[in-house]
């Protein structure tokens, strides 16, 4: 099956991707490699914006489990995403890719505030916009942020870069013989509770007709291959 080609995409990078082989934090070699993938895609003419997660540093739900008030813990999680965004910006600028970070929680001396029209303009000028601090509200995730920003930025698709090459019927790291889906409908993902992204993110993409492409960002050259409709991935669409 050939997948559609896309021009403007939102790339979601979870914190897990940025920590590379480590158990915590940011691995500069990994951010450098991911930046290289983004650069390649830009050179081929694609427009990209990025939402970064924060799970490699802090997750609100984990903080709440240790007794921190949930909303405060979520704000800590959002701040973690800002650190990741700055790390990605640095990695991109080191290889000559113009980048802007926009935070949903204004932080004037660190980065720009999130302003949709300004973000659009950056993208039109060929800059990569990295969205930090999630939606700016607790009780959300950066998956939902990714779906929201993809809709706001009129993206053709949401690319979820992970460490597996698509969506499987069982965890391929644990279950031998688990099979990968080529394509899935949003309704199937929600009905079967398949772990693609959280349910609110999937519903937002479904309602706004934005396909989700799940692919392995760790394989070199994969982002551009999947963008071109080749390579291994799972597409979730209406
Ligand atoms: N978060 C939040 N609101 C948002 C986005 C994120 O409160 O709109 C917090 C939440 O605590 C979350 C943390 O930021 O656990 C890090 O984001 P996420 O867990 O989505 O990161 P990922 O799993 O992609 O690394």
From TrEMBL:
Primary enzyme class: transferase
Keyword list, A-Z: ATP-binding, Cytoplasm, Kinase, Nucleotide-binding, Pyrimidine biosynthesis, Transferase
Record-level GO cellular component terms: cytosol
Aspartate/glutamate/uridylate kinase domain boundaries: 7-216
Locations listed in the record: Cytoplasm
Molecular function, one GO term: UMP kinase activity
The protein's Enzyme Commission number: 2.7.4.22
Pfam families: AA_kinase
Means of activity regulation: Inhibited by UTP.
Binding site for ATP: 12-15, 55, 59, 162, 168, 171
Domain of life: Bacteria
Gene Ontology biological process terms, A to Z: 'de novo' CTP biosynthetic process; UDP biosynthetic process
InterPro entries hit by this protein: AceGlu_kinase-like_sf, Asp/Glu/Uridylate_kinase, Uridylate_kinase, Uridylate_kinase_bac
Pathway given in the UniProt record: Pyrimidine metabolism; CTP biosynthesis via de novo pathway; UDP from UMP (UMPK route): step 1/1
Binding site for UMP: 54, 74, 135-142
Catalyses which reaction(s): UMP + ATP = UDP + ADP
Family in the record: Belongs to the UMP kinase family.
Function in brief: Catalyzes the reversible phosphorylation of UMP to UDP.
SUBUNIT field: Homohexamer.
Name of the protein this chain belongs to: Uridylate kinase
Record organism: Sphingomicrobium sediminis
Taxonomic classification: Bacteria, Pseudomonadati, Pseudomonadota, Alphaproteobacteria, Sphingomonadales
């Amino acid at each position: 099956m050939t997948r559609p080609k896309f021009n403007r995409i939102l790339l979601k990078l979870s914190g897990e991707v940025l920590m590379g082989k480590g158990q915590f934090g940011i691995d500069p070699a990994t951010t450098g490699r991911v930046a290289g993938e983004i650069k390649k895609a830009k050179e081929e003419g694609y427009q990209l914006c990025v939402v970064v997660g924060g799970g490699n540093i802090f997750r609100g739900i984990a903080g709440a489990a240790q007794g921190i008030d949930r909303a405060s813990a979520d704000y800590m999680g959002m701040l973690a995403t800002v650190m990741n965004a700055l790390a990605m910006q640095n990695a991109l600028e080191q290889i000559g890719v113009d980048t802007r970070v926009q935070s949903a929680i204004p932080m004037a001396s660190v980065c720009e505030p999130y302003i949709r029209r300004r973000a659009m303009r950056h993208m039109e000028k060929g800059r990569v916009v990295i969205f930090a601090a999630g939606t700016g509200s607790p009780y959300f995730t950066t998956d939902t942020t990714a779906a929201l920003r993809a809709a706001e930025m009129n993206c053709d698709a949401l690319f979820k870069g992970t460490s597996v090459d698509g969506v499987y019927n069982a965890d391929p790291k644990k279950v031998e013989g688990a099979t990968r889906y080529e394509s899935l409908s949003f309704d199937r993902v929600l009905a079967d509770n398949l772990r693609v992204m959280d349910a609110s993110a999937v519903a937002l993409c479904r309602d706004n007709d934005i396909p989700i492409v799940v692919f392995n960002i760790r394989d070199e050259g994969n982002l551009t291959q999947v963008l071109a409709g080749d390579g291994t991935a799972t597409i979730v669409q209406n």
